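U., I forgot to send this yesterday:
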Amino acid sequence: MKERNYENLTFRMISYIDFEEFKRACLASPQELTAFLSKGKFMEYFNLVDFLNLFNAMLKDQETNVYGLFEGKTLVGIGTSSPANRSFGSQLIYWIRNGYHGKGYGVFLMYSLICRAIQNGHHYAELIIDQENIPSIKVAESLGLTKVKEWTRPESGQGERNSGKFAMYFAYAHQLELEAEQHGLEPLQILQALWHREAYGLIAPPKLVIQESRIGKTRLSQNLRFFSDLGSK
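Result:
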């Protein structure tokens, strides 16, 4: 990966103090929010209350952590971490603000999101990418993520450029990789064994509980998570 200067970048949880900057980033990025996401649909007609409702819904979602990448005080990227499609993992979604592409910020943000998901106890981080979303595929591949499957299902896509063709990438926790290596297996095989044991009732499925994370202390509210996030630096 090309050497870049990221000294002016800050990765942290989004909080209520970021509302105005969040709104500016959204208004500046209609294509980013509508091409392969549906988050920008109707946003051109939003008033202040609409933006407040959207922002509050994001921050109050008990299963989702919302992170921002800031260049100085400017919000240049947003990412979320929520439960993956299968147990023991976290699904990541992100977008980069219009005008800030081509600087490696997507790679920086995705790397930070993966690290945070693993640090918070997940066995893997999951990305589901439209196969025509070439920039996001390049980000995943530049970080060495593993493509675990591809499929076609037009009705499951989002955004105006939905191709109906998708690829799933995993970033594994290092401990899972070590365990797989010790047993002469692939990390996915370890996960599959866990899923089988869970399906047969041999182990309990993971539950969302209020507990201290290694980085970001609670799920009581995004605002509390934000302050504990600052304190972890």
